[in-house]
Write a structure and sequence with these properties.
The complex is a heterodimer of chains A (320) and B (319). Chain A has 320 residues and is an all-alpha fold. Chain A has one domain: MetI-like fold (Orthogonal Bundle). Chain A is built from 13 helices and no strands. In chain A, helix 3 crosses helix 13, helix 4 runs antiparallel to helix 5 and helix 5 runs parallel beside helix 8. The model of chain A has no long low-confidence stretch (mean pLDDT 83). With 319 residues, chain B is an all-alpha fold. Chain B folds into two domains: 72 residues, no CATH class; 226 residues, Orthogonal Bundle (MetI-like fold), CATH 1.10.3720.10. In chain B, helix 7 packs parallel to helix 11 and helix 11 crosses helix 12. The mean pLDDT of chain B is 84. Classes of the chains: A mainly alpha (320), B mainly alpha (319). The interface between A and B is large, with 42 and 53 residues.
């Protein structure tokens, strides 16, 4: 029998379909299929998709209504008492006290919330993974110093220090304020990530496959980033998905206090800051509702992701 | 045990030093110098220079830092740049409002969280469990300032419209001077703060309680014929509370530094408002004083938790 015949024998060209075939599925695919069966998680994904769409279409709302986000219409958007007008054909979700379009501002605010929330999470995840892996894998003095550093960051009165940082570098350009806000949030959230990663790495590095890699002569860098990091995907994804809503709340809080995103760029937090909602409900409920909807959806999705990776973990939402 | 406490104390001092040095350094990095912020935008160059000299800001950075460390170490927090009064007395004036705020909220969330946690653990998947899950989810997701705004809207603005003036948020009033006014002012801030945190406690108590109730010794207690109430509250709750109390200590310490938002929304004049206005005005000594105080709360709370742990749970040995 020639080699090619052997190969043909081993893999028959046309297999009779005898019932269901068994496929190997990666842990990630398993998790994904579990996630897709999770009703709350799917609803959250749909809600988040709609919010992303809302954010992406912000310029469209601005051009349909002919109201750029920073433009003020003190005459048409306010009544004779100088109070902002409610939802109408011209201002779909009403106007704010300066006569700006709430719908358009909310849409641009969605860009800030999602953008800052996700960017800060990515940044703190990268920082957290690098520092956590270094501390856990290298051990010794490096670990002691890094672990103490995490402890110190975690015991900072973070809101206070965040306000000091944001005020100190209070930038005059909007984009700089976005970058600083992202940096501040990442600095105060990486430690939680690093701590979890460190714990995982300490237990992973005693496993046989790491020993095998070492005996094959793999360098420490290679073991850290090629062998260990892929095994961190599950815990990092779970924690990362729960960091997003925290970061969004953090941004909104800083902007609410006036030290986060600087005008003219709107943010849900700053919209709530200048909301005189006593007479104008939409000023409270439009940005407030969007903010709550977004963080709720991210928390539910994160909960679903955790459950998908580890079905035994305790859930936020009790089933049946 | 002794060595453990010494080690934690040293770490606490390290944290205090690092936190205050970070803030000190940050304030010096500011592109708008403090003397300019204090003098105001229209002050002449000579005035600015005079203020700079009077506040000792023309000395080299390291000298200023050294004198800050030395004064802080001897308990001297200095004088406010803006009001010229002693930082320590400024803080002492504002501290009661914040302490009452945190204390009242803590009682609410501790009692509320444990009660709902225990009830939903013993009747898991019942109605209460489901309702509390929804509240937990909202509590974990909602930004603190939004919670405060919503409560203010419903219980102050709307109730006011309906002619009910039960809650009157405003400046802090001492409970000794006017107990009714004190409650009218404090109830909404308490609720706003407690609602956010009660969620964590409900979850924590529920999880911990469910773990404990599946332990062998609980089965033994049931087998002895003890009443269910005695099993749950005497045998179960006591063991289940350890992680909850740990969290309580940590939260209580950390909360002092994060009442800024609640105080701002409700117009309570506590140390949160004090530090916020000081940051805006560039009043460095006050910012540093409050930073040190809040970090001290965190450090002390953590220390108490660590030590208390060994008393609550005999299995924990400190070394």
């Amino acid at each position: 029998m020639s080699l090619s015949e052997l190969a043909a024998d081993a893999v028959p060209a046309d297999v009779e379909p005898t019932g269901r075939q068994i496929q190997g599925r990666s842990p990630f695919r398993l998790a994904l299929s579990r996630l897709l069966h999770d009703k709350m998680a799917v609803i959250s994904v749909i809600v988040l998709f709609l919010i992303v769409l809302f954010a992406v279409l912000a310029p469209l709302f601005a051009s349909i209504t002919h109201h750029p986000y920073g433009a003020q219409y003190p005459d048409t958007a306010r009544d004779s008492w100088g109070l902002p007008k409610g939802p109408s054909g011209d201002f779909w979700l009403g106007a704010d006290p300066l006569g700006r379009d709430v719908l358009v501002r909310a849409a641009y605010g969605a860009r800030i919330s999602l953008g800052v929330g996700i960017a800060a999470t990515i940044l703190s995840t990268i920082l957290g993974v690098i520092i956590g892996v270094l501390a856990g894998f290298v051990g010794g003095l490096v670990d002691t110093v890094l672990a103490r550093f995490m402890d110190v960051v975690l015991s900072f009165p973070y809101l206070l220090v965040a306000i000091v940082i944001a005020t100190t570098f209070k930038p005059h350009s909007t984009w700089l304020s976005v970058l600083i806000t992202i940096g501040v949030i990442a600095f105060f959230s990486f430690a939680a990530m690093a701590r979890i990663v460190r714990g995982q790495v300490i237990s992973l590095k005693e496993k046989e496959f790491i020993e095998a890699a070492r005996s094959l002569g793999a360098s420490r860098m290679r073991i850290m980033f090629v062998d260990i990091v892929p095994n961190l995907v599950a815990p990092v994804t779970v924690l990362g998905s729960l960091l997003v809503p925290t970061a969004i709340v953090f941004e909104a809080t800083l902007s609410f206090l006036g030290v986060g995103i600087q005008p003219p760029m709107p943010s849900w937090g700053s919209m709530l800051n200048d909301a005189d909602y006593r007479s104008s409900l939409w000023l409270l409920f439009v940005p407030g509702g969007l903010l709550l909807l977004t963080t709720l959806a991210f928390n539910l999705l994160g909960d679903g992701i955790r459950d998908a990776f580890d079905p035994r973990s305790e859930r936020l939402i009790t089933r049946k | 045990m002794f060595r453990f406490i010494i080690r934690r104390l040293l770490f606490g001092i390290l944290v205090l030093w690092l936190v205050s040095s970070t803030v000190f350094g940050l304030l010096h990095l500011s592109p708008t110098p403090v003397e300019k912020m204090i003098a105001g935008p229209r002050a002449s160059a000579a005035t600015v220079a005079l203020i700079r000299h009077n506040l000792g800001l023309d000395r080299p950075f390291l000298i200023q830092y050294w004198s800050f460390l030395k004064n802080t170490f001897t308990g001297d927090l200095g004088y406010s740049y803006v009001t010229q009064s002693k930082v320590a007395s400024l803080i002492a004036d504002r501290l009661p409002a914040t302490l009452w705020l945190v204390f009242g909220a803590a009682v609410l969330w501790f009692v509320g969280g444990i009660t709902t946690g225990v009830l939903s653990a013993t009747k898991a998947r019942g109605l209460l469990d489901r309702v509390s899950t929804v509240f937990v989810l909202i509590g974990l997701s909602i930004p603190p300032f939004l919670m405060a705004l919503l409560l203010l809207f419903l219980f102050f603005t709307k109730f006011g419209d309906w002619g009910i003036h039960l809650f009157q948020p405003g400046q802090y009033v001492s409970p000794l001077a006017d107990p009714t006014m004190f409650l009218q002012r404090m109830i909404l801030p308490w609720l706003a703060l407690a609602f956010l945190i009660v969620a964590t406690y409900t979850r924590l108590t529920r999880g911990s309680m469910m773990d404990v109730l599946s332990e062998d010794y609980i089965r033994t207690a049931r087998a002895k014929g003890l009443s269910e109430r005695r099993v749950v509250y005497r045998h179960g709750l006591r063991a289940a509370l350890t992680p909850v109390i740990t969290q309580f200590g940590v939260d209580l310490g950390a909360l002092i530094g994060s009442t800024i938002v609640t105080e701002k929304v409700f117009g309570l004049q506590g140390i949160g408002q004090l530090v916020y206005s000081s940051i805006v005005q560039g009043d460095t000594p006050v910012i540093l004083g409050v930073t040190l105080l809040t970090a001290l709360f965190v450090v002390v709370a953590n220390l108490i938790v660590d030590i208390g742990y060994s008393f609550l749970d005999p299995r924990v040995r400190l070394d």
